[in-house]
Amino acid sequence: MHSAYTYPIGTPGQKWGDEERQTWRAQTSIKREYQQLVIPEIEALRARFDVVQYGALSYDPARYPLWCVKTRAWQDDKPTVLITGGVHGYETSGVHGALQFLATEASRFESEVNLVVAPCVSPWGYETINRWNPNALDPNRSFYPGSPAEESAALMALVAELPDILLHIDLHETTDTDESEFRPALAARDGIAYVAGSIPDGFYTVGDSDKPQLALQTAIIEAVRKVTHIAPSDENGQLIGSDAVQEGVILYPMKKLGLCGGVTDCTYTSTTEVYPDSPQVTAQECNDAQVAAVVGALEYVLAQ
């Protein structure tokens, strides 16, 4: 149903121009620091991994360098696995779950795969706890040639330099602020009516409708179930407005929508969705769920 809610920026029914985007950016603020909370965790990995800068955001290149972490014993005859986090910077466990995986579990797989981890694709979004970048663009709808989002373009350039990727896991969250802030802002920006939705209580995955790999999604769900609860479908058999094709799994056309999950041509891909606002979970359990998802995916793929 259409909501009577009116977003405080812009004129209902009219797309934003530069003035509205600048007004939106002016009301953002730094709430946590990438250099204090993320960079030290990346630096701590240098003793065991290769840490490589693959770009920097022009908003403030010194403040927002973009880093990826690679397994040191790289071998071209091993499959390559890509893990991405923080494409939406406000989704905290995507960032810290990726880093926790590197610190605690990655060594189990180094002999079998080449790992490439970009733990915080959108550091400005991380600092401002935002879905968009400073230009009111969603990086996770901007993975296509000529992308206007620097975050997406930089990751695409990194991927273009990698050998064929077998598996890509993109770590995300679905939060209450998706409905209280980000989807109303999106409707206002695009000059359309905001249609209220609901947030699933629990973990789910998003597969690629062009290559669902449902057995992979099942393996991830079963691994995460040991850590946190799986989101039940609603009364319409849906999760966040999409049909659940099996427990805790929906499908999107990744490349068509410009999603990070479609940034490669890999055989196996899954986007995780943790629900950090559930009263049943802690922040640490959210990170643990992301780690379990990556481990479950890797174990499944390597068993094939």
Automatic annotation (TrEMBL):
Keyword flag Zinc: yes
Cofactor(s) annotated in UniProt: Zn(2+)
Domain Peptidase M14: 30-304
Region: Disordered, residue numbers: 1-20
Keywords, alphabetical: Hydrolase, Metal-binding, Zinc
BP GO annotations: proteolysis
Pfam families cross-referenced by the UniProt entry: AstE_AspA_cat
PROSITE patterns in UniProt: PEPTIDASE_M14
InterPro entries assigned: AstE_AspA_cat, Peptidase_M14
Entry GO MF terms: hydrolase activity, acting on ester bonds; metallocarboxypeptidase activity; zinc ion binding
The keyword Disulfide bond is annotated on this UniProt entry: no
Family, as annotated: Belongs to the peptidase M14 family.
Protein name: M14 family metallocarboxypeptidase
Record organism: Vibrio ostreae
